Amino acid sequence: MTNIMKQLIHLLTTLLLLVLLAACVPVETANLASDGAAADAIAAPEEEAMAETRTITHVLGTTEAPTNPQRIAVVGYNEVEELLALSITPIAKLFETPAHFPLEAEDIPLIGHNGQPNLERLLVLEPDLIIGVEWAMAEFYDELTQIAPSVVVPRTTFAEWKDALRFTADVVGRSDQVEELLADYDQRVAEVRVAIGNERLDTIKVTAFRPYGGGDGFLIWIDRSFPDVIMAEVDIQRPEAQRAQLPDDAERIDNLSLEMIPLLNADVIFFALPESGVFTASASEDLANYIEDIEASPLWAQLEAVQNDQVFKVDGAAWNEGSIIGANVVLDDLERFLAEAGN
Which of the four, 29, 84, 123, 341, has the lowest number of CB atoms within 10 Å? Predict the structure, then answer.
C-alpha cells in the first residue's frame, strides 16, 4: 500500500470519527435539556403549592396565609390540641402541654415563658404559618407577621370549641378531616348517653368544680363553660341552686371560698384537680393544702355526693378548657363514673 493510500485511509477514518462525535453531542445535550425540563416540571408544582396563598380574615386583620402550610408555630394553647387532633405536629408551642395530649406534644419546642413568646427563638424555627389566640398574639402581632403569616383563632368562650376547631382546620386545609372528627365525637356522645341510661340522666344532678392553682378558692363550671356544654350534650342536669348564682353571660361561678361549699351539693360531684406539674413548688404545695382544707371542712362532709361516695376526681387540665382531645377525655370520665356508679 502506498503512502498516499495510507494517508487517505487515515483521513477518512478521522472524518468518520468527527461525524460520529458531532452526532453524539446534540443527543447528549438534548438529553440533558430533557432531564432539566423534567426536573423543572416536577419541582414547579411543589414550589407552586408552597407559594399558593389565600386571604384569611380574623380579629386582628387579614392575612395572606399559605394554603398548604408545612411548619406551623402556635402562639396559644388550645391550637396545639387542635393541630394534633388533625394529625399535624406544630414546630413550636407557647406553653407546656398537659398529660392527656399525645406523646409527641412533649417534643414540640417551647418558645414562651408565662405566656410571652420568645420572638428570637421563633424566628430561628422558620415557621411558614403562625396561629394562636388573641390575648397571646395581640401585643406582638406586628413582630409575628414579620416572621411568618399570622392568624388569630377566634375564641369568645370555651363553649364554642367546635367553631374554633373548624376555623383552625380551615386555615390549615383540613376541613374534611375535622368533620370526620366531629362526627366521631357525636357518635361518642350518643354512646355515653346510652351507657348512663335515660332513667339515671332524668334523676341525677351533677356538679363539676375546680380549685384554683394557687389554692385560694374554687370555681364551679356551668352553662357556657367547656365541660358544661359537653355534659349538656349528654343530657346531664346541673343543680338549680348553681344557676341562680350564675352571673349574666358567665360560664362559671368564680372566686368561691370554703364557706360556699354547700353550693356544690349534688348527687354526683366531679372534682377536677389542676395539673400540679405546671405550678411552682410553693404553688403546688398551696394547692395540695387547699384540697385538704376542702375535704376536711364540716361543710364538705354534709354534701350528698360525699356522704354517698359519689365524688370523682378527674384531670383538671382536660376538663378546664380545650378542644376535641379534652372533650373525649370528659366523655370517657362521664361514662366511667356515671354509668358504673349507676350500676
Answer: 29
pLDDT at 35: 47
Cell numbers linked to 55: 386571604
Cell numbers 376538663 label which residue? 319
C-alpha cell, 129: 404559618
Contact of 191 with 222, CB cutoff 8 Å: no
**pLDDT tens for each residue of 260-271:** 999 999 999 999
Pick the CATH number of 197-341 from 1.10.760.10, 3.10.310.40, 3.40.50.1980, 1.20.1560.10: 3.40.50.1980
Q: Are residues 274 and 239 in contact, defined by beta-carbon separation less than 8 angstroms?
A: no
Q: What span, in angstroms and rounded, lies between the C-alpha atoms of 115 and 209?
A: 25
Q: What is the pLDDT of residues 272-296, one digit of tens each?
A: 998 755 555 667 788 889 999 999 9
